[in-house]
């Protein structure tokens, strides 16, 4: 069968791709009505509209607006046009439109009845595209003027010029239209209807015509014609004219304004929206359901006004009927209008499908696409869609939508069934002469959109076409592939990888998919090499002229191989295998990370994990070479995946962007570069995925062996390689039979716990023997060995022991007394709390020295043990060397501390035998100074046996002194200090004075102290205390008598004088306090110190009282001598102060003439002082 002969309608007939409401040719209208397809979606809209419209005949309404919304190509203009024909019941080719629709609703008579009933009455439609008919200069009344223009045109007037239209309306209302037209034609020689558009140029004919027909004067006619002012026109005036027009029509007459592209025309212009609202509201209120306004727009009316819905709420009410169209049934329209088959063809196509069912299912199996993009579901769909494939209906809609969205087409391009019709018809025409095995490849749809595309797109295709014709590296087939890649450039639902491109290029049911795949792959390679397309991972992309320029520059941007390898290393070790250490049981093994010759991170010097990329020469990847080089390494030869190319492309893009001043480039180029940056990110993701696959398919060479691992992901295979490497490289790892976990385990080993196994052997015994051998070898070489050396050796190959396990092994040797540990020159004992840190901490192991043990002789151990038992008076002195060393250090340290504590007691004191205690401390320090070396320490103890014994004997009296006698000694010393100022007084107590001198003699002795005399101090202190108490009693009596005498003198002076009472009372209080003080004081000197202030208080108080009680002097009257009387001289009383003799003559012991002279001189000075400010003194 030939495809052309399969179709019910001629495939080459003219089909309008885009419906225009102003196309009114009979042939066009006839075809549009005849071929109009009522889809399920459209049927719903017909029912909604005619239900509401039909009800208006029985229930008039003012909500007479209908808004039909839908995107470009949804069929809204076609629907509007069909409604116009139906409502007016236009007669086309002698057949009423309603009758033509009868057969379209043959399966739904109820819906047709709605249509039939609604079209029984006289109806006139005014169908127009407001975007075409409206003025370019849009003002506030733009909508009104378009409606007025179309209405007056409909009446036969010249709506283009409202001045002319108003003239014609006036003439018509006067019944003189025919007369006016006839007279004008007589004068002009041409019909009025033809000449009215040139109204301004026909003044000499119009003015006389107006004068003759309307009886106007020449001046009035000329003035009217010459008036250039705009016609004053309002919504009310237009609605009045409409209302008058429908009033002239029969009952139930309908006038419909059918306005296409109203939404696009008014947009979001507030003024025009208000104009449309006011107009529809006025028409609805004045004309009711007799006049309808039916508009189309890409957006629904509520979407247009949603920003200011409160201002336009009335327009929503008027457009109560709202119909939203989509292209969801585009395949149904195409099947019926283009692909409808002749009755006899359908069974043959169904049979053809059944014969090739499995072939077709395999052919149309897409990868990485959404589910509804698929092949044929069955024989019926095959027969309906042939020679097309179901996926093409879905993809083509998306293609048209994306092309329009990305600004590659003109405004008339449509993505619904209208352009789809053209596209499918033209594609079918291309294969019309082929047989029934032919399928339409997707690239055939390109020609449908070619003429609408921007020049930058068309030029690429045309240049490729010329290259194919001239054989310039491109073949004819490649042009189709390039067209295809452009069509799906922006469609995300289907990935433009090789497998999907093969499917989209399929043009025959019998296609060998494998052969076609190879054919397409070569075509893509050619297009890539000529820079017509780009590649991101496994997807291919069409490039515009500018994109090709950018792509070419990017391709020519050099990138260092080393930088690519470094980036591979970042991905491998930063994303795919991120572990810096390999976990093997309880062990964490570091390994050097390498890619080709690049090392990542720090070099450990242990195992190596090395990846070889395509950048490494093939010679270096030979099996023999790699088996040799892989000793101590795991070498991974990456599989053949495009990881390198992807990273190279990504790095070229980023380097190119850095080199360009993007901000200064044209916006189109900036957009391309921005897209390229997105591609660079995509390349990174592709590279990461490709690297994972490259590792999964890699060849592994581990420690001299070529290995094949079981299935698993990239990380799993790397870990298998490292596991094998660890087992072979760290061959001495199994010497550790028990792992330590913490410092507590180290301490337990040092104290002899937790080392025994069930078989009687000790854990890690072989490991300890190996370390002991090493230390013995070091000792023979006379080489110092630090703990850091040991840790480094046994953590490295071939041991690989953990740091804590190395410490545990050394702890075993320490416990077994086979090694000596020294820190800062000091021998460290097993029980030292800091020993675990010295064996483990990085800051300490370098300072910790470990050596083979040099033991103390058995004879010395025995002699030292006997001495220690006797010296410290203990029986349990350890027999082993470490135990004895611990004992010596601990005991002598305790003794030293004890003696130092005794020595502290001498601070601020004059205790006897301080030098002896200092010697004892020095002796202890001498012994302990050898603690760095066990042999030297034991030898020091033995050497100093006699000195230690002597010191211990000498220290017995000191020990006893501080234990029981120091309190008495302190009391005696305190008494000497306390009585230092009482010595003169005690000289009168001979017995107490002798006792005090004896105490002084005893406590002041510092060396060769006779400790047997200390008990004598108690008796001596009692004697001194008794004598001192007697003196205190006598002194108190003396002072109390002074208090009595002072008070007596004060009270005598005051007498009964009331004015002196307060002074007297104050004196009583003063002396009462002194009495209390006299009874409290225990010092004779302090008691003597109370006398002067008490006597001074008496004198001061008596003086004050005397001043109050002294009578005023009486005046002396001289004898009358006749002369002037002399003024008598006042009597001056002498001031005599009284003092107690003890103030002048204090108690003092005089033993020499010098003492007498000094005492007399002191008394002389005291008396001279007391004589000042008075006439004399009295001693009592």
UniProtKB/TrEMBL annotation:
Pfam families: BREX_BrxC_4th, BREX_BrxC_helical, WHD_BREX_BrxC. Residues 557-725 form the Probable ATP-binding protein BrxC 4th six-stranded beta-sheet domain. It comes from the Bacteria. Residues 733-854 form the Probable ATP-binding protein BrxC winged helix-turn-helix domain. SUPFAM superfamilies: P-loop containing nucleoside triphosphate hydrolases. Residues 861-982 form the Probable ATP-binding protein BrxC alpha-helical domain. InterPro entries: BREX_BrxC, BREX_BrxC_4th, BREX_BrxC_helical, BREX_BrxC_wHTH, P-loop_NTPase. This is BREX system P-loop protein BrxC. It comes from Stomatobaculum longum. The lineage of its organism: Bacteria, Bacillati, Bacillota, Clostridia, Lachnospirales.
